[in-house]
């Protein structure tokens, strides 16, 4: 479009003035570009912002005080419009230390309105404007300077069209009385993205944790806790420390010497030199754990008696509720979300329930629809 003009905010005062204008408008469109290939925490490379008649780029690598933007993100009186903004919100929360408030995610809105389920940004722009965006710049290095004109134009478009589409989505949601559903879902996504996983629960995110026995599970808990703490401290991806499969193999083998550790697949000699002693120390701690302090198991549900039949009933229940809302069943509850309820009802004791987030299908707007019937269906087993 011919009016896609933009400017850089090159000074703290310019950013403060823009944030004041955003408060007056009551909303702003927001996107970020970042790099996360070799770090645990995403590295912010660019911030794109738009309000009516203004499109700006903010370079976080320049010496600009970002606090006025952070305060704006936490202002509940100003709507922050994003598209599939989970990673953006997680990054901005990590950068600012503040919880984003009053977020409107256009991908969620499009799903609720039946425009497209988990619709990508380019597809949404094509739907509303019949414009095909060039996405060739999405994988470029956003930390390199100077930015190319192609990078700048690509980045500006992400906030520009979002600002144009937002009023249309708001009108449709208002007409169909769907605003509260979108608001509830956006709030849930913020809570999930800004939640910090306790170190001692990190083992539960390993896909094959069911393979370990009781004492081995204590070893796996120590190993996963050590790995997460190390990844955060060194700002490295978890897999750069030790891969998931290797953690499982080390725990199952109850490995307590460097030679045995060297026989584990995916354990590079450099990894052993750097972390070998710490890995062995974690395994030994697990082996010394008293039986009554070992965390409850997370069995593989496919092996549990009655699971398949009950899963079909739970899946049908989700579909029925989705049909009533006139939204996709996958939006109400995915297979993973249904399985989280099975684990919660069957294998999580009361003490652990106080520490874990409540499953999606038992909380918020989903819980209002499904909690009673799901808990009746999945009565704790003796």
TrEMBL record:
Subcellular localization, as worded in the UniProt entry: Cytoplasm
Domain HRDC as annotated: residue spans: 213-293
InterPro entries: 3'-5'_exonuclease_dom, HRDC-like_sf, HRDC_dom, HRDC_dom_sf, RNase_D, RNase_D-like, RNAseD_HRDC_C, RNaseH-like_sf
The protein's role, per its UniProt record: Exonuclease involved in the 3' processing of various precursor tRNAs. Initiates hydrolysis at the 3'-terminus of an RNA molecule and releases 5'-mononucleotides.
GO cellular component terms listed in the entry, alphabetical order: cytoplasm
Species, as recorded: Aliidiomarina minuta
Enzyme Commission designation: 3.1.13.5
Source domain of life: Bacteria
SUPFAM superfamilies in the record: HRDC-like, Ribonuclease H-like
Catalysed reactions listed for this entry: Exonucleolytic cleavage that removes extra residues from the 3'-terminus of tRNA to produce 5'-mononucleotides
Enzyme class: hydrolase
Keyword set includes DNA-binding: no
Tagged with keyword Cytoplasm: yes
Cofactor dependence: a divalent metal cation
Keywords: Cytoplasm, Exonuclease, Hydrolase, Nuclease, tRNA processing
Family, as annotated: Belongs to the RNase D family.
Pfam families: DNA_pol_A_exo1 (PF01612), HRDC (PF00570), RNAseD_HRDC_C (PF21293)
Protein name: Ribonuclease D
GO biological process entries: tRNA 3'-end processing
GO MF annotation: an example: 3'-5' exonuclease activity
């Amino acid at each position: 479009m011919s009016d896609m003009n933009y400017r850089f905010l090159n000074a703290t005062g310019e950013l403060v003035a823009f944030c004041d204008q955003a408060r007056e408008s009551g909303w702003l469109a927001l996107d970020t570009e970042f790099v996360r290939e070799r770090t645990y925490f995403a590295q912010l490379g660019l911030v794109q912002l738009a309000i009516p008649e203004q499109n700006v780029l903010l370079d976080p690598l320049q010496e600009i005080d970002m606090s006025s933007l952070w305060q704006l993100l936490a202002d509940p009186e100003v709507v922050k419009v994003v598209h599939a903004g989970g990673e953006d919100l997680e990054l901005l929360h990590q950068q600012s230390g503040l919880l984003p408030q009053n977020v409107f995610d256009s991908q969620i809105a499009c799903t609720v309105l039946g425009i497209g389920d988990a619709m990508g940004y380019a597809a949404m722009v094509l739907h509303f404007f019949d414009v095909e965006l060039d996405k060739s710049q999405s994988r470029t290095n956003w930390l390199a300077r100077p930015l190319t004109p192609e990078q700048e134009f690509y980045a500006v478009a992400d906030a520009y069209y979002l600002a144009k589409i937002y009023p249309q989505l708001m009108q449709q949601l208002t007409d169909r009385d769907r605003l509260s559903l979108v608001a509830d879902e956006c709030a849930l996504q913020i809570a999930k993205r800004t939640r910090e996983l306790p170190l001692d629960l990190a083992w539960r995110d390993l896909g094959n944790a069911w393979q370990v026995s009781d004492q081995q599970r204590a070893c796996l808990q120590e190993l996963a806790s050590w790995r997460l703490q190390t990844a955060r401290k060194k700002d490295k991806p978890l897999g750069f420390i030790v891969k998931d499969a290797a953690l499982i193999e080390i725990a199952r083998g109850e490995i307590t010497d460097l030679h045995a550790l060297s026989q584990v697949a995916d354990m590079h000699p450099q990894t052993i030199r750097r972390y070998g002693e710490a890995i062995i120390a974690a395994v030994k701690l697990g082996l010394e754990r008293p039986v009554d302090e070992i965390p409850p198991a997370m069995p593989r549900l496919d092996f549990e008696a009655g699971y398949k039949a009950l899963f079909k009933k739970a899946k049908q229940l989700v579909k029925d509720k989705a049909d009533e809302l006139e939204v996709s069943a996958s939006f109400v509850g995915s297979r993973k979300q249904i399985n989280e309820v099975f684990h919660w009802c069957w294998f999580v004791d009361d003490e652990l329930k106080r520490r874990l987030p409540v499953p999606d299908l038992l909380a918020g707007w989903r819980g209002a629809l499904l909690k009673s019937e799901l808990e009746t269906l999945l009565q704790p087993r003796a």
